[in-house]
Structures are given as structure tokens and as C-alpha cells.
């Protein structure tokens, strides 16, 4: 970034995203954060190598972007006692991790979609376990005029029960898996084309939680949603990050989809996720 910026910005080889260096995010002053926030709106994904944020530092940094949907949660296949969870089809946490490997935006299945997230790497496997992001602004821009016209007024329901159910991970009352997101009884209905509330850009809004476009048959709806997601996740609209311990990222959930990549789940992977709450004025989705 030119001028007196307190950090350096190196754009990724994609339509979005940048690596930011020369700054300790936990120590940014107000002016520095204001510059960083503008940069975040431009790039949608900022990667900060070597931050090694503490729990309190991560929460405080995420809060600067807005109130939390939740302050911090482990995204990990490691139990509190240090043992690795078995990939046996029965562990509820592994079910969540497997689900996260599909392209999605956070909390579209909740009444208010998330604004963004801060994610940090603590223990990472030698191979696999990357996180991918896809630029839904560039995806919309690249659609042909006929497709834009076709989807302009379409909406889709979003449900975590639906997306996990497609993987055979059913909701069961009383299990550890019946909590956050799985208890939503009435799936929110969201437009396929979202207007970003701060930049005004149109973004394609699909992903694994989306289903059941009103006015279309089930097969036609599923085919359209799958085609749009496949289109969105093609180069140069995607980036996959190979994690190193200490990395921190912040992404704009209103502009990007993301996913975790598979890894050998006998190996530990410990990440921490702070989710930034969406503004109900722009992120609330009404029911049909």
C-alpha cells in the first residue's frame, strides 16, 4: 500500500486476497486499523503470517471488525486431552469437520448471516488441510448476461441440517451434534445475488447450505446451484492457503465462500475461529 500505511500488502495471484506483512495486528492503532479495514473491503481476504495470536488477542482483533457471532471456537480434530478423534463415522466433531470441506459461507443457515471471520493456525498437518476461498464478486461479474438475468430474482433456502444430511450426518436431538445451526427449524430464504452492504458490489450467493429454489423443481434447483458453485470456484477466482503455525487470516463472509481441504485425519489439525456477526439490516433473511 502506498503512502504512510503501517503495513505492506502483496496481492495474491487471484481476483482477490492479499498477504499483509510489516504489522503486528494485535498492536494496530486506530488509524492503522482504519487503513487495514479499507484494505480488507478491497481484497476480502487478508493473510497475516507469523502473528501467533493469543486467545485474547484473536478475540480483540475480531471485535474490531464488529460484534461477535461467537468469540472463539476450536476447529480441531484433537480432544482436550490431546488425543486425536477417530475418523470412524460416529464422532460428531469429525462430522462437522467433514462438512466444512464443502464450499460455503458461514451462518447462511442462521437468521442473520455472518459478516466475516478471523481464523488462526496452531497445529497443522505436513500435507493437506489447506483452506480455500472463492471470490463471489468476481464470479457474479463473470456470469454471462443470460445467466445473470435468469438468477436475478431467484432465492434459495439455506440449512445446515440439509447440507450435513446430504453427507449422511443426520440431526439427532440430544447429541453433541444437535447444537449450533442444527436447531434452526425454518430455513432462511436468501437471494442468489447478494448486494454487499459496504461496497455495493453484486456477489453470487450459493454454497453447500443452499437448496430448494422456489419456482423450480428439485432437480432443476439442485443442478442450477451446483453449476453456479462450480463456476464460482474456478481459477482465477480461487485461492488455497497452505497454513503455517502462527498464521492469522480475516475474510469477508459477504463476498467469499470458503472450505477446508482434506488431510490425513490421524494427524492433528488445530485452528481457532472467531465469527463476526452480520448486521441484521443487511444480513437478515426472511422466511418465505
Commentary on this structure:
- The chain is α+β, with helices and mostly antiparallel strands.
- The protein has one domain: Double-stranded beta-helix (4-Layer Sandwich).
- The chain is built from eight helices and 15 strands.
- It has a seven-stranded mixed β-sheet, covered by helices on one side. It has a three-stranded antiparallel β-sheet with strand order 12-6-14. Strands 8-7-11 form a three-stranded antiparallel β-sheet.
- The chain is globular, with a radius of gyration of 19 Å.
- It starts with 7 loop residues before the first strand and ends in a 5-residue tail after the last helix.
Main sheet makeup = 7 strands, mixed
Instruction: Report the uncertain regions.
Output: none
| Count of discrete alpha- or pi-helical segments spanning 4 or more residues | 8
CATH architectural group: 4-Layer Sandwich
Mean pLDDT: 94
Order of helices and strands: EEHEHEHEEHHEHEEEEHEEEEH
Strand proportion: 15-25%
Structural class by secondary-structure content:
alpha+beta
Residue share in helices? 10-25%
**CATH fold topology:** Double-stranded beta-helix
The CATH superfamily is Clavaminate synthase-like
Amino acid at each position: 500500500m502506498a503512502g504512510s500505511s503501517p503495513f505492506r500488502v502483496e496481492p495474491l495471484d487471484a481476483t482477490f486476497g492479499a498477504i499483509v506483512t510489516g504489522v503486528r495486528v494485535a498492536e494496530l492503532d486506530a488509524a492503522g486499523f482504519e487503513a487495514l479495514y479499507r484494505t480488507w473491503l478491497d481484497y476480502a481476504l487478508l493473510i497475516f503470517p507469523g502473528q501467533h495470536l493469543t486467545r485474547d488477542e484473536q478475540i480483540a482483533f475480531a471485535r474490531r471488525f464488529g460484534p461477535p457471532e461467537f468469540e472463539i471456537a476450536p476447529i480441531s480434530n484433537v480432544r482436550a486431552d490431546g488425543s486425536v478423534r477417530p475418523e470412524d463415522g460416529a464422532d460428531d466433531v469429525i462430522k462437522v469437520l467433514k462438512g466444512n470441506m464443502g464450499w460455503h459461507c458461514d451462518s447462511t443457515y442462521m437468521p442473520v448471516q455472518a459478516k466475516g471471520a478471523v481464523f488462526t493456525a496452531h497445529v497443522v498437518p505436513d500435507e493437506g488441510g489447506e483452506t480455500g476461498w472463492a471470490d463471489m464478486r468476481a464470479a457474479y461479474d463473470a456470469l454471462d448476461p443470460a445467466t445473470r438475468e435468469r438468477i436475478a430474482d431467484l432465492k434459495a433456502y439455506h440449512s445446515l441440517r440439509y447440507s450435513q444430511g446430504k453427507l449422511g450426518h443426520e440431526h439427532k436431538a440430544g447429541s453433541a451434534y444437535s447444537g449450533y445451526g442444527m436447531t434452526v427449524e425454518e430455513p432462511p430464504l436468501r437471494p442468489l445475488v447478494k448486494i454487499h452492504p459496504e461496497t455495493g458490489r453484486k456477489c453470487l450467493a450459493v454454497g453447500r447450505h443452499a437448496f430448494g429454489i422456489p419456482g423450480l423443481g428439485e432437480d432443476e434447483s439442485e443442478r442450477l446451484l451446483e453449476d453456479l458453485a462450480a463456476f464460482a470456484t474456478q481459477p482465477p477466482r480461487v485461492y488455497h492457503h497452505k497454513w503455517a503455525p502462527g498464521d492469522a487470516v480475516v475474510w469477508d463472509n459477504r463476498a467469499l465462500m470458503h472450505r477446508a481441504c482434506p488431510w490425513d485425519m490421524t494427524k492433528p489439525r488445530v485452528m481457532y475461529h472467531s465469527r463476526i456477526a452480520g448486521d441484521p439490516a443487511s444480513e437478515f433473511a426472511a422466511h418465505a
